[in-house]
Request: fold
Amino acid sequence: MIPAAPKGFRSWTTHLGLADEGRDDFSMVVSDRPCTASVVFTKSLFAGACVTLSRSSVDRTCPRGVVILAKNANVATGTQGLRNANEIRSAVARSAEIDPDALIMASTGVIGVQYPMTTIRGGLTGLGEGFPLDAHAVASAIMTTDTRAKVSVRAVGASTIVGIAKGVGMIEPDMATMLSFVFTDAEISQDDLDRTFRDIVERTYNSVSIDTDTSTSDTAAIFANGAAGPVSHADFVVALEEVCTDLVKMIASDGEGATKLIVTTITGASSERQARLVGKTIINSPLVKTMIHGEDPNWGRVLMAIGKCSDETDIEPDKISVAFADTVVFPSSSLDEETSKANMEAVRVHLAAPTVEINVNLGIGTERWRVYGCDLTDGYIRINADYTT
Reply:
């Protein structure tokens, strides 16, 4: 049985008044001991005050915890927003009895609104010593338009890896997802952890897209406090990638208004870059998304999306094959009429499933990439049309 949480981490959650639903909107997780860590931030030119503050701290020290506020991004709030973030982080650091620089800070929600500091100051009094890490409580407290908490756990030897995430919209990461934090009591060196995490970020968080929009607040981090001792590095890598892949699938399937998870696998590419480009182009196509939502086996829209990659001059249409799960739809010229009709019906049935698989072989190389996304529905439009009202 996998332990509920890695050893040596404490968590706090509370309601500060940012969310009007009466639910917790503040959370903090801190290790009782120093950690090795890896943190990746958004590349957005409009990065929020919390990202700015955290970047500066990571340059000075290795963090051992995170503070997260939901429902207010603290973005485009100027020097006052930065002062407010610094004040909040300093206050919670005093409660945790650690240096403020040992905490990274994250915040997501509405852009351009200052924190309600009077309310927040009152809510932060008497946080206490915290409790053993409750990943589900923290994952619930960081949600904005998410419909469910996102948590994944794996065991590696005597250690545990637990990951949490939030994010269902404004997701076309240029680093990670909107917010994702991983905690483990495995002992792993700083260099090994950083190299491993950044590599896995590329294959997971950087390979998910909901709507092509990059958040101003994206942050992904892992903290390893070594309380459970050393583990097999190979086993750790496998388990960590499984945790991050779980979270990515949860994010994509919970995309704003989404009804289906789309998994697109590109093989036979001349480079990983090319495979990722083609996969993202397919997953981001509004026509592909709506075709899948409508369960319409109009597979020509996948060819259209591939055709948009016009700078990839080594891609040759005659070498490409396209399948939905195991059903090949292109090339179709060699199929008789009866087989073509049977294949179309098989695709229609597959499109009715909660997970839709699109498999494309470019037929020009040996590289592959997998990307994750969701369908496009009228629910997405309504959620974002009414976001602040």
Observations:
- Residues 261-385 form a domain with the Ubiquitin-like (UB roll) fold (CATH 3.10.20.340).
- The mean pLDDT is 90.
- The CA atoms of residues 36 and 71 lie 29 Å apart.
- The chain has two domains: 9-253, 261-385.
